[in-house]
Every structure is written in structure tokens, then in C-alpha cells.
Amino acid sequence: MMIDEVKERMSSLFSQTTLDFLATAPAMDLAWLRANRQTYESQLLQPMKSLIASLEPAVWAIDSRLQGSPSRIQRDLRFHPNQPPLRGCAWVVFQDRLIEPDHRPAFFFELFPTRYRYGMGFYAASTAKMDRFRQAVDRNPERFATIATAVPDRFTLMGDRYRRSRAAHLPESVRTWYDRKSFWVQVERPIEPILFGEELSGLLESEWGQLADLYRFLAQEAR
């Protein structure tokens, strides 16, 4: 896709109709989705695909193997039998699909009716992956401390921690990462005008770029 074409499609990205659709969807069924398919595709699915296309050059500069994909509005009820069939949020994720799902870090953007968030990390890292992460930190704790402290303060470190620390030998700036069962970093913001234009792509490029060294550590050093 040509850059000018991407910019033209990005100029009208998400809209209030997008947010209304996400707010309504969880109370509806698949028949409603079929009746509103055009709204879903034009106001949610296509904007997410346009956002992916606009971000690819910047993301590939971090890791050429990263692939972008949009979420589906439908849940797989085989795995979520007690949940509504339609989600009330949507997301874009960039990940290396050659890495096992519970071993791969990913960049993400997630949209809700009243807020949005973005960041990078694991959806649910396996115990084996986190053990490899800790081994990589132990090999060079100073390097990881430099990477961790370079993550801007506006990003919040998320993920459950072990009750008993495994990192008494490490400084506090590293210990809070080391003791997680899985983790990701994120910024969460209220709905604001930047969501409705091409400036969103620039924001994510800049913010994800701040996490590039952390991503490379997780993807390469902690294999």
C-alpha cells in the first residue's frame, strides 16, 4: 500500500460511531452483528487495518519479523462459554509469530468505549519463558537495569508478583521486574481527539520506540 493512500485512510480513523459500537456490542448477539456488519467493517475493522499499515515501517525498524493483526469482535465461545459472544473492546498487536505464543513479547494498542491503552510485553508468559528472562538478567543485571530505568515513568509495569521475592541479590529497579510471573508495560488514557486522526500512528511510533530496547531484550536475550 502506498504511503499517501495510508495517510488518506488514516485521516478519518476511529470515530464516535466506533466507540458507540464497542459500547453496544457486549449486550448484543451474532444476529445483531450480521445486521451491523457494514458499520463494524467501516468503523472498526478497516481503521485497525489502516493503523497497522501505517505502523509497519516503524515497527519493522525494531524487528523485521513483527507482524500486525487486528482482533476479532467475536469471542470463541468454546473457550469463553459464559461470556457474551461479542467483545466490548478491540486491539491491534504486533508480534513474531515464529515464536511460541507464551514466549513472545508483543506491542499492543487496545481501544475501549471510554479509554485506550498501549504498550508492550507478554499476554501470558510461560514459566519457562520467565525463567529464561531471569537467567538473562542474572547474566548481565547492569545491562537490564539500564534498559528498565530507561522505560519512561508514564508506563506502568503490570503483572502478578510472587509473594516471596526471588531477587534479593538485585537492586530494586530490577527486582520489581524479576519477581513477576508475567509482565507488560502500558499507558492508559481517556478518550481524546488524537484517536480520531492520523496523529495516533505518530504517538504509537514514538511510544513503542521508547520500548525497543526492552522488546529486544525479551525477544533475543531471553530466548
Explain this structure to me?
The protein has helices at 3-10, 16-24, 30-35, 37-62, 127-139, 141-150, 172-178, 199-209, 212-221; strands spanning 67-70, 90-95, 106-111, 115-121, 156-158, 184-190. By secondary structure, it is α+β, with helices and mostly antiparallel strands. The chain has one domain (3-221): Protein of unknown function DUF1054 (BirA Bifunctional Protein, domain 2, 2-Layer Sandwich), CATH 3.30.930. Helix 1 crosses helix 4 and helix 4 packs parallel to helix 8 (199-209).
- The CATH architecture can be named as 2-Layer Sandwich
Strand content: 5-15%
How many DSSP helices?
Answer: 9
The helix-and-strand class reads: alpha+beta
The outline comes out as: globular
The biggest sheet, with number of strands, parallel, antiparallel or mixed sense and barrel status, is: 6 strands, antiparallel
Query: Rg, please?
Result: 19 Å
Following the backbone from N to C, one meets helices and strands in this order, namely: HHHHEEEEHHEHEHH
What is the CATH topology assignment? BirA Bifunctional Protein, domain 2
| Number of separate strands | 6
Mean pLDDT level? 92
Question: What strand order characterises the main sheet?
Answer: 1-2-3-4-6-5
User: CATH homologous superfamily, by name?
Assistant: Protein of unknown function DUF1054
Q: Please tell me the total number of domains.
A: 1
* Fraction in helix: 40-55%
Q: What is the CA-CA span between the terminal residues?
A: 33 Å
